[in-house]
Amino acid sequence: MRIGFDVFGNIALIKFDRSMSLSDKKKYALQYLSSHKSVTTVLEKTGKFSGRLRTLKTRFLAGDKTLEALYRENGCEFRFNVESCYFSPRLSEERKNIASLVKSKERVLVMFAGVGPFPIVIGKHSNASEVFSVELGRDCCKYALENVKRNKLIDKVKVVQGDVRRVIGPGRIVSGTFDRIVMARPNLVDGFLDVAFSVSRKGTVIHYYGFYFEEDVSKLKELILSEALKAGKRVKILRVVKAGDIGARKFRYRADLRVL
């Protein structure tokens, strides 16, 4: 019997084997609560993250009836709704790694920022001059702003709600050029690299995430080089590393590239 877990502070989100009955799931949830004192709510994950906003369907099983999580990582606190706001605790170390790469006084842009985990960890653990957090989902942005205040970063992290294609670029809300751009994008067909290139300059470092089977990872480099050519940019791919798995033999890869 296969059971998968994600724990978001006070909320445990469990993916059960299809063969389990609802009564057995509820019994398991009560046992889980009794043995994990920091968890006060158990939900069943009833579907996959879906759509541009990466929303999720759950079923309440036991404990306090809430969808609002309070989660801590890397010395930061995050509050969010587990159904309306995508959040991956498995990227905790990845967020810390990116923050460690940020140099003093850098201007940083995070696209597809959700409730602000990348921008806030960067803001907390680096000497960046300012960090822009851009996210399409209104609910996520509401929580992102709350999380920025909660972590006392209101003067450093700027939350912008909107489609990256509409709010980023010359003459738009998020303009100028950035020293570092983080693209923790959803698993969509659109690569959005042209948006990043529109606010990059010589020396800009872009952390670009893509989802590939191991044997197809060369397509990630091909995509980057093709999009750079279209944008009239020369780039150097510094490295490609695995940043987590998302399925059988399929991984989230991060490509680090520098604009030349």
Task: Give a written overview of the molecule.
- This protein has 260 residues and is of the alpha/beta class.
- The chain has two domains: 4-66, GMP Synthetase, Chain A, domain 3, CATH 3.30.300; 87-259, 3-Layer(aba) Sandwich (Rossmann fold).
- Helices cover 27% and strands 33% of the residues.
- It is built from seven helices and 13 strands.
- The chain has helices at residues 22-35, 92-101, 117-125, 138-150, 164-167, 193-198, 218-230, and strands spanning 4-8, 11-15, 41-45, 58-63, 68-73, 76-81, 107-111, 130-135, 157-161, 180-183, 205-213, 235-247, 250-259.
- It is globular and about 60 Å long.
- The relative contact order is 0.10.
Summary, kept brief:
The protein is α/β, with parallel strands linked by helices and 260 residues long. 27% of the residues lie in helices and 33% in strands. Helix 2 (92-101) crosses helix 3.
How are the strands of the biggest sheet laid out side by side?
9-8-7-10-11-13-12
Overall tally of structural domains: 2
CATH superfamily of the largest domain: Vaccinia Virus protein VP39
The best one-word shape is globular
Count of distinct strands = 13
Examine the secondary-structure arrangement and name the CATH architecture of the largest domain: 3-Layer(aba) Sandwich
How many helices in DSSP terms? 7
From the alpha-carbon coordinates, what is the Rg to the nearest angstrom? 19 Å
CATH class of the largest domain, please?
Alpha Beta
